[in-house]
Design goal:
The protein has 14 helices and no strands. With 286 residues, the chain is mainly α. It has 2 domains: 1-157, Tetracycline Repressor, domain 2 (Orthogonal Bundle); 160-286. It is flat. The termini are far apart.
Length: 286
């Protein structure tokens, strides 16, 4: 039972759940009404397997750094619950199985996009970008922003501009979301020589970037209403949520208490969840 739990935790389930929620929203927004529950379930299963594979590969590659950081030292590999070889085999099997499911039961486009996202996060970001540039989160964030597009394409078998707008929202949200956490964990990143923005450019500069990105996010979050993708329910919700996020960002900018960074980080998680819920509510109620 403990072994099953270790493999489960290897997949970063909380991250995968959030990705599946975003993919699910993309699926529901891709059509006026739900046409096939089975298609949705199969697509989510395939995407979940590939996402879990990417997370497992990330942990295999980062196992030494994870062991040295308080936030990650309880993961299965640093704890010795799994070997790197077994974790790698597991990641390969579930990744290929997820891709096969998407290819056979959904469509080739979704499989290709999902594999591209897997490679982007597990290899391009983890192996290269994470240690190459303080803009790692900005550049690598595209892979993490893909789930709504994966969900949309699984239903429509196309790359729709509205789906790309959802990707843009997550893409702009990612830097202020993660940099808030990076401020709180800056000493651990510095110890492992990982060039996160607070380590390379200082906390004050990072806080300014969080404020600026949050302002950009405020503007981007209104675009679904501007392009007639959504209506007044979403507009009001996005303005309220983005204003709250901006409040936390400005509060963080003027605060010397690192705990405010964690509060900003925690709110950012609620933000992306609620703004997608608002999109769904608007889609079906309006």
């Amino acid at each position: 039972m403990n072994l099953i739990k270790s493999y489960y935790l290897l997949c970063k389930p909380n991250v995968v759940y959030m990705m599946l929620i975003c993919a699910f929203v993309g699926m529901l927004l891709a059509e006026d009404s739900v046409s096939s529950i089975s298609t949705i379930c199969i697509a989510l299963f395939g995407i979940a397997l590939c996402s879990g594979s990417a997370a497992a590969i990330n942990q295999v590659i980062d196992r030494k750094a994870d062991a040295a950081m308080t936030r990650t030292d309880q993961r299965p590999l640093p704890q010795g619950e799994l070997s790197a070889f077994h974790a790698s085999c597991f990641a390969f099997v579930i990744g290929m199985l997820g891709a096969l499911i998407l290819y056979v039961f959904i469509n080739t486009l979704t499989m290709v996009l999902t594999l591209a996202s897997l490679i982007g996060y597990a290899f391009i970001y983890t192996v290269y970008l994470k240690r190459a540039t303080p803009q790692n989160i900005v550049i690598g964030g595209l892979a993490g922003a893909a789930p709504p597009l994966l969900g949309w394409s699984s239903i429509s078998n196309s790359i729709d501009p509205y789906a790309l707008l959802l990707v843009l929202i997550i893409f702009v949200w990612t830097p202020p979301h993660f940099w808030a956490l990076a401020i709180y964990r800056k000493d651990e990143y510095a110890k492992e020589s990982i060039p996160m923005l607070p380590v390379t450019h200082g906390v004050a500069f990072t806080k300014l970037q969080i404020v600026l990105y949050t302002i950009i996010l405020f503007i981007v979050s209104i675009l679904p209403y501007v392009v007639l993708m959504s209506g007044e329910i979403y507009l009001v919700s996005s303005v309220i949520l983005s204003s709250m996020f901006l409040y936390y960002s400005i509060k963080l900018y003027f605060s010397n208490d690192d705990s405010v960074a964690m509060k900003t980080f925690n709110f950012s998680i609620y933000y992306i969840f609620l703004i997608f819920i608002a999109l769904l509510a608007d889609h079906y109620l309006m």
